[in-house]
């Protein structure tokens, strides 16, 4: 089963990972705006990164850099299909 999102059709695991990614990134936004550190634990970041951007290292630094880089053109390069259906190529849009 898949659910609609503007980025594509996600399976349940991908949809949850997307929600976690949004929480992490907006948490970083808020903390940065308040001048506070924000360094989420690896056990939270790793499954999110592994599901949505499996071509990157599963670290907060890599995930944040990817999100900041892609935000320039307001597009996300994230994997919408389940990992077992991924063809190994980085999505273009």
Concise synopsis of the structure shown:
Helix content is 47%, strand content 6%. It is mainly α.
Order of SSEs:
EEHHH
Q: What's the overall average pLDDT, rounded? A: 86
Beta content comes to 5-15%
* Secondary structure tally, helices: 3
Mind describing the biggest β-sheet? 2 strands, antiparallel
Structural class: mainly alpha
- Span between termini: 22 Å
Q: From the alpha-carbon coordinates, what is the Rg to the nearest angstrom? A: 13 Å
Q: Could you name the ranges where pLDDT drops below 50 across 5 or more consecutive residues?
A: none
What is the number of E strands?
2
Shape: globular
Share in helix: 40-55%
Order of the strands making up the biggest sheet = 1-2
Please describe what this structure looks like.
With 93 residues, this protein is mainly alpha-helical. The chain has one domain. 47% of the residues lie in helices and 6% in strands. It is built from three helices and two strands. It has helices at residues 12-33, 42-52, 60-70; strands at residues 3-5, 8-10. It is globular. It starts with a strand and ends in a 23-residue tail after the last helix.
């Amino acid at each position: 089963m898949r659910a609609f999102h503007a980025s594509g059709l996600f399976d349940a695991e991908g949809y949850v990972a997307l929600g976690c990614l949004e929480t992490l990134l907006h948490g970083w936004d808020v903390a940065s705006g308040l001048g506070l550190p924000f360094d989420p634990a690896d056990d939270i970041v790793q499954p999110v990164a592994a599901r949505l951007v499996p071509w990157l290292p599963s670290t907060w630094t890599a995930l944040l850099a990817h999100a900041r880089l892609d935000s320039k053109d307001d597009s996300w390069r994230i994997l919408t299909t389940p990992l077992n259906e991924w063809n190994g190529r980085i999505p273009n849009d």
